[in-house]
TrEMBL record, chains A, B:
GO terms for molecular function: DNA binding. InterPro entries: HTH_LacI, Lambda_DNA-bd_dom_sf, Peripla_BP/Lac1_sug-bd_dom, Peripla_BP_I. This is LacI family DNA-binding transcriptional regulator. Gene3D superfamilies: 3.40.50.2300, lambda repressor-like DNA-binding domains (1.10.260.40). Keywords: DNA-binding, Transcription, Transcription regulation. PANTHER family: LACI-RELATED TRANSCRIPTIONAL REPRESSOR, TRANSCRIPTIONAL REGULATOR. Residues 9-63 form the HTH lacI-type domain. The keyword DNA-binding applies. It comes from Rhizobium herbae.
Length: 332, 332
DNA sequence: GATTTTTTTGGCAGCGCTACCAATTTCGTG
DNA sequence: CACGAAATTGGTAGCGCTGCCAAAAAAATC
């Protein structure tokens, strides 16, 4: 028994084997158009016998209708994006779409290059994070004619479709909550905001509401690099060294907030008695800590699901605000 | 100014505009074959002017050499897989390869279906987790002729390429470490092992060394569902309710271990005085907790990098063991 | 039973590009 | 300046499939 290596079985061979025409095989396989039950069985038998695997590359080229969906995401380290991919991939798989991705490291220039590379695959849609793109990216996407989905933000003008929630509102609501709780001397610990513009929008919203509430931000510590638990710990340490009398700290996200929380645990700083901690994202881990983290839970998986849904149903241009949920927790 | 929507510029149009033949444009664009500097400039100018984006679908079909790499991974919730993707995607991008993925939810049957769907894109390689695949998956992959990379495990027979580390050895080494530290009454808290076979291998290795060391596993708590911090917390709670006199607990991974750690913090159980905790993965968060988590750090990103490297260099079949590192931490 | 209608089918021209080969131009040498 | 070698080019046949159209077969109608 010889092993036929790389024996690429083609549709034509299946047609021969089944004793029908190529287009008939194509119709049966896609369950599109009409054919008799008898020929369907004959075709399927031949497919089975030959181990035929349709070539989607050829199919896509011929039909000029792609079922690829391209994700251009800032990071895979920040759990936000795997969550979005998870939600989207479930929906896409059900609809026989295929997800393709690349990672920009929060670099708009890289985003442009990667978006260009993606467009070369003629995807049905390109899924991006947020609204901040280079002029070149926008121009290219517009010219491509494929659907564009901007995810995880709704504060801005959408190119086509947008799914997410308002980061500005999240920041404002966090501030309002802390003010209501009676905190007056608040600080902020965050990561590089110039790259993560959504974190920047939260911070801006937070400061705005604090100022309006008569308790403007007392101090802040911005760390270079990505958000991480360790950076959160370090950031809070530095912030408190400089401004020890803070009564609450807002973190750029839960990773950072957990770092801050651990710092307090390690130093024996009573939470929230002496210092309140507030995060963003609503990670599961924040619910399992000795004191549940006060934070805002964002619909990350749902964002991916809805984004994918809009694409597969070819929905008209629109902005879908999925909202978020404030979790009181026990750290504020 | 009319907006040409969906104005798919083709290579032929670029050739016309530049006043050269199609093959010349193709050669220039791929920087392959010879052409004069003058024609290159002319071609590039035309490309620029028309906003030409090569169609990789067509290119792939014509060359029958794909630059797609298909990832069929169990999960995106378990940070392990985003980490692997991250390492791989960096290398793939550099080499103008494109990553495609789908998620199996640890279901071998789904893996088979998704692998089949992937092969339809005629990828250069299929990247899978571990060695446990259905017969159908194996047959299909073998027949496809594309490269196969089994990642995150080296305990078994590789189909083609394998990159990772020994889960069995990780379990054994964890046990040896705890024995050396003097723990004698040990327990285990894990998630569904029938699905996550690599966690199963660690557990088996762990038990083996414990038995050899004369201190066989005292009790275990296996939770249904995926690993999570909350499940770790819950698992330890149940385990201790049943067997309060344990002196150390091995967790299926760091997520679970952190849950256990938080449980001890909440209950005031001294660590490691009364109970030692040992994890697996070496997540960053485990280093920022008040007491750094004792665990084994696995080269997840490197696994992705090396896997991608082997594919782009078309390396001969081989198994690459990247090893792992035991981190003593302060919880054991 | 003849004719119309409906359902199934096969043929074939591309989809946009690459690979191969032959034609053309340029260059180097004697 | 002639001539072979080397460097550039263009033409064109597919890659494997889908979409369109016309042909054939089956079913329905009178």
């Amino acid at each position: 028994m010889e092993l036929k290596h790389q024996a690429t079985v083609t549709l034509a061979e299946v047609a021969d084997a089944a004793g029908v025409g190529e287009s008939t095989v194509s119709r049966v396989l896609r369950n599109h158009g009409s054919f008799s039950g008898k020929t369907r069985d004959r075709v399927m038998a031949a497919v089975e016998r030959l181990g035929y695997v349709p070539n989607r590359i050829a199919g896509t080229l011929a039909s000029t209708a792609s079922r690829l969906v391209a994700f251009v995401i800032p990071s895979l380290s920040n759990i936000v994006f795997p969550d979005v991919l998870r939600g989207a991939s479930a929906v896409l798989e059900e609809n026989r779409y295929q997800a393709v991705f690349s990672v920009t490291d929060y670099d708009p220039t890289k985003e442009e290059a990667l978006a260009a590379a993606m467009l070369a695959w003629r995807p049905a849609a390109v899924m991006l994070a947020g609204y901040e793109h280079t002029e070149g990216t926008v121009k290219m996407l517009r010219a491509s004619g494929c659907r564009i989905v901007e995810m995880l933000d709704v504060d801005g003008d959408a190119l086509d479709l947008a799914v997410g929630f308002s980061n500005g509102a999240a920041g404002r609501e966090s501030a309002a909550f802390l003010l209501k709780r009676g905190y007056r001397r608040m600080g902020y610990v965050g990561h590089d905001l110039t790259r993560d513009t959504r974190a920047g929008k939260r911070f801006a919203g937070f400061c705005e509401t604090l100022a309006t509430g008569g308790a403007p931000l007392a101090d802040r510590e911005i760390l270079a690099g990505a958000s991480s638990v360790e950076n959160g710990r370090l950031g809070l340490e530095r912030l408190l060294a400089r401004t020890p009398d803070l009564d609450a700290v807002y973190f750029s996200n839960d990773d950072m907030a957990l770092g801050g929380y651990f710092h307090c645990l390690a130093r024996g700083i009573p939470i929230p008695g002496q210092l309140a901690i507030f995060g963003y994202n609503g990670l599961d881990i924040g619910r399992a800590t000795p004191q549940p983290l006060s934070t805002i839970r964002t619909p990350r998986v749902a964002t991916g699901q809805v984004a994918a849904q809009l694409v597969v149903t070819n929905a008209p241009p629109q902005v879908v605000d999925l909202g978020f949920e404030l979790i009181e927790g026990a750290t504020a």
